[in-house]
Design brief:
Length: 318
């Protein structure tokens, strides 16, 4: 084999090698690269679904605990419906939640599916949701309130849940459940406002009761529901009397109007307006039969507006 033949053969081998490498890159390496990129994009999309997946897994795990003792559980649910007093009714609810280690929202789901009614009133559910957020939501952590939906017995439910992240570990807590998407949207907006409010004022049980009461009053009546005991005893009216706080009557008691000052009034202006009104309406100076009642109103208004924290709470709640 002479030199020209060797060069020709070497050229052919190099050409074939380059061709094979090109084909290998095009159909193997590049395809794998594209596949990997697609997988990354798919993972990004799935990441948004992961939270809902874990929440539904939480529900599924709780349902599995129920299914292990399904007959007993359904009997206990029957006992709730058969309870003759509100005290017994509430005690049975608490016992079931603790015994089966489930969330209230899951018990609500079973109860509604079986008896087509709510287990607790909307107002109490809102109070429970606010108390839960007060306890578990940490504004300094990566916490989020989110919504997912699922189907149970051919009914579509919407579930509000809290996602928390502690030591790089996600936890999911079920907060509120309902079939009405419009109500869910309103509750979600309200809960987010509550979270913002927590950063600016001190939240206690009384404030939570006031917030829940005001929220319910702003809703369309078609959203509001009560339990059978509330319908029988009108306990809603009684409970509202128990939290008969000044701020509840905001429609009839605008403290700024009562004292005759602007909402932007300074403390000095509020004090001056109060003294003027007090002289005019003091029962010893004014013999009008309504003077005593009006005098109490200006005292009530001054007590709130002259206190920095009470005034801040009043302005935020109203």
């Amino acid at each position: 084999m002479d030199g020209n033949e060797i060069i020709t053969l070497a050229s052919c081998i190099i050409f074939v090698a380059v061709l094979l490498f090109y084909l290998f890159y095009k159909f193997v390496i590049k395809k794998r690269k594209i596949s990997k990129e697609n997988n990354l994009n798919s993972n990004d999309l799935n990441y948004a679904r992961d939270d809902n997946f874990y929440v539904l897994e939480t529900l599924k795990n709780q349902e599995n605990r129920i299914l292990q003792l399904k007959d007993d559980f359904l009997k206990d649910v029957d006992h709730i419906n058969e309870a003759k007093s509100e005290t017994k009714y509430n005690q049975l609810i608490e016992n079931i939640i603790n015994f089966y280690n489930i969330d209230l929202v899951l018990l609500e789901l079973y109860f509604e599916n079986k008896y087509n009614q709510k287990i607790i009133s909307l107002e109490k559910r809102i109070v429970n949701a606010l108390l839960f957020l007060k306890k578990y939501h940490n504004p300094n952590k990566n916490n989020e309130i989110k919504v997912c939906q699922f189907v149970s017995e051919n009914k579509t439910y919407h579930l509000i849940y809290l996602k928390t992240n502690i030591e790089n570990k996600n936890d999911y807590f079920l907060i509120f459940i309902d079939k009405n998407k419009e109500l869910i949207d309103k509750v979600l907006e309200f809960l987010n406002k509550f979270i913002t409010m927590q950063k600016t004022i001190t939240i206690d049980l009384q404030t939570i009761s006031i917030l829940a009461f005001n929220f319910i009053n702003q809703l369309d009546k078609s959203f509001i529901y009560k339990t059978k005991f509330e319908k029988q005893t009108n306990s809603r009216k009684k409970s509202n009397q128990k939290i008969n706080h000044n701020l509840l009557t905001r429609d009839s008691k605008n403290y700024y109007e009562i004292l005759g000052v602007e909402k932007t009034a300074t403390l000095a202006e509020i004090k001056k307006a109060y003294r003027t009104k007090a002289k005019q309406l003091h029962p010893d100076m004014n013999k009008n039969k309504n003077a005593d009642k009006e005098f109490k109103k200006i005292n009530e208004a001054y007590e709130v507006l002259s206190n920095e924290q009470k005034r801040k709470n009043y302005d935020l709640l109203n």
